[in-house]
Amino acid sequence: MKVRRSFVLALAVTVMLFAAGNVFAQSYPTKPIRIIVPFPAGGATDIFTRLISQKLTENLGQQVLVDNRGGASGIIGTEILVKSAPDGYTLMITATHHAINPSLYKKLPYDTARDLVALTLVATSPNILLAHPSFPANTVQELIAMAKAKPGQLNFASTGIGGSNHLSGEMFKSMAGIDMVHIPYKGAAPAMNDLLGGQVSLMFDTPAAGLPHIRAGKLKALAVTSAKRTAIAPDIPTIAESGVPGYEALSWFAMYGPAKMPKEIVTRINTEVAKVLHLPEIQKRFADLGAEPVGNSPEEFAAYLKSEMAKWAKVVKDCGARLD
């Protein structure tokens, strides 16, 4: 009888906790939500976050505010997130840097795997391998042949050490078996200006940045870095189909919360963000910016994040990049 009473009591407590969790999730949110963007205003992460936050505000009936906390490749903003209360009122949308930083930096002020909860993959975007019009090669095969004939004489620009466009180039070098010189710049604008001026030959950059110059005849596209051709520029071949099978390097954007968030709130946020990402007007705006909305489950995104961290760790190790 004692065992039976204990079992009934435990079951009753479980049911009450489950019911309380459901009520909590249904009443959430009861105050404004803050989404941290760990980069300055105006970049791709900021633009995507503002599009999402506007629709969330409409759908949730509470203000969803964007808080830009740029610096140190997203580390400053991420540290603010992990120190926040895990109540669903402080979230973060960040980019591929988040999966690269654990390998790039000797020590971080948080544990990427332990101190955050993965909410959803927001969007993915390829880079385009861009070249100045005067560059002799017009295809990836021609570029590889040139690089092998002139090892160490070709160069490519990037927005800085450890970014996705830098590491896209390093992975290309490794998988193609070629040697090119990496020239890091302090930001996208000076790198693009030198590519347009012919001071550097090549650069991996986003469709949003590259396509206007391609259409104007100021740059040419050799390939995209996605596994499949991108809908925004279907005539541009992939690197994988152009002689480097298995190559894939995506820029991506994702939402996180601090660890120990209640599962019911994780599910609610995931559901609401997925609804926004499936709106036709949001899908069109993302496509215009060269990105594909995703909105997968927390479990699917957690698995993807794990695989991306492993992939970029190998690239960072192979090229010896460090930022300490």
The number of distinct β-strands equals 11
In CATH terms, what is the architecture of the largest domain? 3-Layer(aba) Sandwich
User: What share of residues are in beta strands?
Assistant: 15-25%
Q: What's the SSE pattern? A: HEHEHEHEEHEHEHEHEEHHEH
Task: Describe the largest sheet.
Answer: 6 strands, mixed
The CATH superfamily of the largest domain appears as Bordetella uptake gene, domain 1
Structural class of the secondary elements?
Answer: alpha/beta
- Low-confidence segments, given as residue ranges, are 12-21
In terms of topology, how is this protein built?
Blueprint: H1 2-27, E1 33-37, H2 44-60, E2 64-68, H3 75-82, E3 90-95, H4 97-104, E4 116-126, E5 128-131, H5 140-149, E6 155-158, H6 164-176, E7 181-184, H7 188-196, E8 202-205, H8 207-215, E9 220-224, E10 250-258, H9 263-277, H10 280-288, E11 292-293, H11 298-319
Parallel strand pairs: 1-2, 1-3, 6-7, 6-8
Antiparallel strand pairs: 3-10, 4-10, 4-11, 5-8, 5-9
Q: Could you please describe the fold and organization of this structure?
A:
- This protein has 324 residues and is α/β, with parallel strands linked by helices.
- The protein has 2 domains: 31-125 and 251-319, Bordetella uptake gene, domain 1 (D-Maltodextrin-Binding Protein, domain 2); 128-242, Periplasmic binding protein-like II (D-Maltodextrin-Binding Protein, domain 2).
- Helices cover 45% and strands 18% of the residues.
- The chain has 11 helices and 11 strands.
- The protein has helices at residues 2-27, 44-60, 75-82, 97-104, 140-149, 164-176, 188-196, 207-215, 263-277, 280-288, 298-319, and strands at residues 33-37, 64-68, 90-95, 116-126, 128-131, 155-158, 181-184, 202-205, 220-224, 250-258, 292-293.
- The strands form 2 sheets. It has a 6-stranded mixed β-sheet with strand order 2-1-3-10-4-11, sandwiched between helices. A 5-stranded mixed β-sheet has the order 7-6-8-5-9.
- α6 links the parallel β6 (155-158) and β7 (181-184).
- It is globular.
- Residues 12-21 have low confidence and may be disordered.
